[in-house]
Write a structure and sequence with these properties.
This protein has 111 residues and is an alpha+beta fold. Helix content is 46%, strand content 26%. It has a domain of 54 residues: Roll (SH3 type barrels), CATH 2.30.30. It holds the Pfam family YajC.
Length: 111
C-alpha cells in the first residue's frame, strides 16, 4: 500500500507540461483528416457512382440486383424497375437496389 502512495506523491508536482494542448488539438485534427481520407471520401465516391449508374439505366439493360437476381429491364419508373427474370416472369424492384449493369448478351451466355 505504501508503494502506491509514494508514487502518487512523486507525481504531484503542480506544473502542467507545456504545449500539451496544442499537441492534442493537432492530434485530433490529424485524426479527423485521416478518418475522412480512409472512410468518408471513398464512400461518397461510391455513392456518386451508384447514383449515376441508376440514373443511366435504360429499358433493355441486363442487370444484377443487390439480392443477386439477374434480369432484363422491361420497364422503368421514377423509383422502380421491372425485370424479366424468366419466360413470363416479371419482378418489380426499387431502382436503388441495382448492383451492376451487365454487358449485353450476358444472360444468354449464362442461361
Amino acid at each position: 500500500m505504501s508503494l502506491f502512495i509514494a508514487s502518487a506523491h512523486a507525481q504531484a508536482t503542480g506544473q502542467a507540461p507545456q504545449g500539451g494542448e496544442l499537441f492534442q488539438i493537432g492530434f485530433l485534427v490529424l485524426l479527423f483528416v485521416l478518418f475522412y481520407v480512409i472512410a468518408i471520401r471513398p464512400q461518397r465516391k461510391r455513392q456518386k457512382e451508384h447514383a449515376s449508374m441508376v440514373a443511366a439505366l435504360n429499358k433493355g439493360d441486363e442487370v444484377v440486383t443487390s439480392s443477386g437476381i439477374l434480369g432484363k429491364v422491361t420497364s422503368l419508373d421514377d423509383n422502380y424497375m421491372v425485370l424479366n427474370v424468366a419466360n413470363n416472369v416479371d419482378m418489380k424492384f426499387q431502382r436503388i437496389h441495382l448492383h451492376a449493369v451487365l454487358p449485353k448478351g450476358t444472360l444468354k451466355s449464362i442461361g
